[in-house]
Amino acid sequence: MTPAVPGRRPPAGGGRDRRPHVTALGGGHGLAATLGALRHVTTALTAVVTVADDGGSSGRLRQELGVLPPGDLRMALSALCDESDWGHTWRDVLQHRFSSTGPLHGHAVGNLLISTVWELLGDQVAGLDLIGQLLGAHGRVLPMAAVPLDIEADVVHRQGSAEHRSLVRGQSRVAVTAGHVERVRLLPEEPPACPEAVAAILDADWVILGPGSWYTSVMPHLLVPEISRALHTTHARIGLTLNLSAQVGETSGFSAADHVRSLSEFAPDLRLDVVIADPTAVEDIDDLSACAGALGADLLLRQVSEGDGTPRHDTLRLAAAYRDAFERFLGDVGEKSR
């Protein structure tokens, strides 16, 4: 089985494919949650994944082999595996980590496999497509950029009335910083985007941002010039899925509305169509609604958490929220007029 690769929307008329073509942007567990939900809504699905991880198995392979960090790409592929014994078995193989006293300790098999096919094929996208075929993936996984990236953050530390700033470099360090992230940037500052990722955004009916680590998985897409330009010019509708809680370190003290405000600070001209939030994670609905409205978006409040007190999205509830959003806006045509 070959992975479904989104193409341009077919013309209206007899036999039109009515499935929304969806491109989801992010990384890590947040993107995996999005993909797990979206696969219940459409099979025309593409993941565009951050490539700035510098820790763990991904960081070691990146440093030793000079490859894109494969970990978030592996997680996205695993989230799209075929719902069969074959797909589940290969998903478990990809996710398996070695435990030993030697140099293989902590490495994920999937990271090694992805790095292997990249070396054999000499093509990042072709390698990911090949792993997708192995999994029977229902969708496609693409890197955000064609080169490994570093994240650098300006962080404000406050202790009482005293305040000082520091420069924190590296995704793994920014994600757990004890200060307030004031600004992030990518190194190199204007990295080349993956062309297929740009095309997936331009060809989509819907683009979904979030949930996920705000400054290290969600925001980086807005810092790649070609990705940002595609987000600003696409005819796709754009949805933002909010986190269920602030992340210790990276967004400590952030309200739901603060997340939206920070997005508007990074991309003041970006227009959204819907902001999806769980009401239990919203401190002030009026504030959040106003922030969403300032970006042109409606606020869609739905229970999307598992409801057990943990900040984890429930796959079927999140899928229902996406379906509500898509049906409200797509109608019979699926075109957006800005």
TrEMBL record:
CDD domains: YvcK_like. Residues 1-11 have a biased composition (Low complexity). Keywords: Cytoplasm. SUPFAM superfamilies: CofD-like. Pfam families: CofD (PF01933). InterPro entries: CofD, CofD-like_dom_sf, Gluconeogen_factor. It is found in: Cytoplasm. GO terms for biological process: regulation of cell shape. Residues 1-20 are annotated as: Disordered. GO terms for cellular component: cytoplasm. One of its GO terms (molecular function) is LPPG:FO 2-phospho-L-lactate transferase activity. Belongs to the gluconeogenesis factor family. Required for morphogenesis under gluconeogenic growth conditions. This is Putative gluconeogenesis factor.
